[in-house]
Design brief:
The protein is an alpha+beta fold. The protein has 2 domains: 109 residues, no CATH class; 220 residues, no CATH class. 57% of the residues lie in helices and 11% in strands. It is built from 11 helices and 9 strands. It has a 4-stranded antiparallel beta sheet with strand order 5-6-7-8, with no helix packed on it. A 3-stranded antiparallel beta sheet has the order 4-3-9, with no helix packed on it. A hairpin with a 5-residue loop joins strand 1 and strand 2. Helix 6 runs antiparallel to helix 8.
Length: 406
């Protein structure tokens, strides 16, 4: 039964997160100032010289880190300059799916040639598209190139409905597929006998851990089973995504605030719509509290309903993003310190520090999944907890009567 709940929760969660990620905005959509020409006019952006060298200055490193942390329509594993001085990118593209004035249009992101400044125009189905800071724009009728105003906004292009399979969307689909395969195998294993086999032996202790150390203590023995599907889904979904973020492919799904917002909203909705009358009574009209204090505390308690999920989304987003930024900053030491330590020394120091932080990030990947699940179960437990006010009041009355008799 728990496996069926987990499957339903997983499908719902992945579908919602994919939908949110498709429409999320995670980078500034304006073009940098250096695209302006010498007359102050912001005309068509030309394709820049691709013979750039190493990224070894602070502004370049900061820009690279920002690009790495943001979502993207393609995977760029590494870049190099060939013998002709042209910059080559090694990676693979993802499908671009947009709804434009001409209807549904699909093509591969490789047609933008890794340009993110609007300099490459893709023509499909009679519509022209440009990519500006990871956002797809459709040029107005008759336009042949992107034009910018003094604030570096496109004046002859508009955004489209973007349903593309980006890195974040692909990462969530991979995590969801892995969970379906792993837990489907675990559920089938229990049909054969009480002892799981194969990789299911690794999953069973984790499932028991979530049940006995998170769900039962926080929600209670009577009601924890109802929420096990959601708690298991959230725990393993976040954990797998965090581990994918440590791979060289550059996934940063849980570092996308749109994803963490959606996860927190699920916790908020479940807490709100399964809460009992005692929960609402303690928010709007606290028992045993003087009426003036009830009026003062009520808006604070209502605000607390929203600060709880807000703390969930900020904690996960900030910790994962900070971890990726630190790792990339330490990798950059190899280039920024090569003048003082030499190239070999810079790479040696950078490798040791990055390895150390990466090991900590493995712990953080599990810890953030645990904290999110623990707090979610705590909030749910607070909402479904039974408050025995009547019995407590009767006990006080009987105690007073006994004292009076004595």
């Amino acid at each position: 039964m728990i496996a069926q709940q987990l499957r339903k929760c997983l499908v719902t969660l992945v579908f919602s997160l994919v939908s949110i990620a498709m429409f999320s905005s995670n980078e500034n959509t304006t073009l940098p100032a250096q695209h302006a020409n010498e007359h102050g006019q912001h005309n068509t952006t030309e394709s820049h010289s691709s013979g750039g060298g190493l990224i070894d200055t602070k502004p370049e490193i900061d820009a690279y880190k920002k690009h790495h942390l943001a979502d993207s329509h393609d995977f760029s594993l590494f870049s190099y300059t060939d013998s002709h001085g042209k910059r080559k990118h090694v990676g693979f593209s993802l499908p671009v799916i947009v709804w434009s004035s001409k209807g549904l249009v699909t093509f591969m992101s490789s047609e933008f040639h890794h340009n993110d400044d609007g300099s490459v125009i893709v023509t499909k189905n009679g519509a022209k598209f440009a990519k500006i800071h990871s956002k797809i724009y459709e040029l107005d009728a008759g336009a042949t190139a992107v034009k910018l105003d003094n604030d570096h906004h496109a004046t002859n292009a508009h955004k489209v409905w973007d349903f593309s399979i980006t890195k974040s969307v692909l990462g969530m689909l991979i995590a969801g597929l892995l969970m379906l395969l792993l837990f489907g195998g675990l559920a089938k294993g229990y049909k054969k006998g009480p002892i799981p086999t194969g990789f299911s032996r690794v999953l069973e202790p984790l499932v028991i851990y979530v049940r006995d150390e998170i769900a039962r203590p926080n929600i209670g023995e009577k009601k924890y089973r109802k929420y096990m599907g959601f708690l298991l889904t959230v725990f393993f979904f976040i954990w797998i995504l965090n581990l994918l973020g440590l791979t060289p492919f550059g996934f940063n799904v849980t570092g996308n605030i749109a994803v963490t917002v959606c996860l927190a909203i699920f916790t908020f909705l479940i807490t709100t719509f399964t809460a009992n009358k005692d929960y609402w009574k303690h928010i709007f009209w606290m028992p045993g509290v003087p009426v003036p204090m009830k009026i003062v505390l009520m808006p604070i308690e209502i605000l607390g309903m929203f600060t709880k999920p807000f703390s969930l989304l900020i904690r996960l987003f900030a910790n994962i993003t900070a971890g990726h930024a630190v790792v990339m900053g330490l990798i950059a030491v190899a280039y920024t310190a090569r003048e003082t330590l030499g190239l070999a020394g810079g790479f040696g120091v950078s490798t040791l520090l990055t390895l150390f932080i990466s090991l900590i990030e493995l712990l953080v990947a599990f810890l953030q999944a645990f904290i999110f699940t623990m707090l979610s179960s705590l909030f749910i437990g607070m909402a479904v907890e039974e408050h025995d006010h009547d019995h407590a009041h009767d006990a006080e009355v009987h105690g007073a009567e006994d004292n009076s008799i004595v």
